[in-house]
# Entry
Amino acid sequence: MPCYRCGTRQADPEAGKSSPWRRGVIREHQVLICPACQPSALADLSRCARCGSMHLIRRLDQVECLDCRLTRDAEPEPPPAPAPGAPAAGGGDLAAEVARALERLLGGRGASRGG
Ligand SMILES: [Zn+2]
Ligand SMILES: [Zn+2]
# Structure
């Protein structure tokens, strides 16, 4: 998973060292933050409601604090906006039926009479 801000990919940490990358949760999404972006990411990161830690992980539909183990339900994703120009349900057949009836009425008249 690349850094959520700059897209840098995480390199393997040196042997014996833990990775300087951090995990966090931003807008209910699990993210990875490279060392360069961490100062800027602080403002974005969600915090634990109980202990204020930013050491959170997202799992399934819950967000868990790794420091105090407080678990809460994640906010649901907002429903996607309906696509513009979506087909309206129903009505097509009736309109075609009426058009055919009108055609018959209008077309039936005017068989040569008079002249
Ligand atoms: Zn970054
Ligand atoms: Zn906590």
In short: The chain has two helices and five strands. The longest strand covers residues 22-26. The beta strands are 22-26, 29-33, 56-59, 62-65, 71-73. The two ends are 85 Å apart (CA to CA).
